[in-house]
Amino acid sequence: MQEPVGECRDCGKTIFCDGGFLCGVVLENHELRCFDCDEKAKNEEQA
User: What does pTM read for this prediction?
Assistant: First the structure.
């Protein structure tokens, strides 16, 4: 069962909780980021 829990701070995409698992990342400041945007942010940090 999917339940919306918030929006990605970067792209605005709705982030869901799917069967008890968050389909995104909670940042240190308690904001949410989708997996796609989190991957992009990590790649930018490494460059």
Answer: 0.85
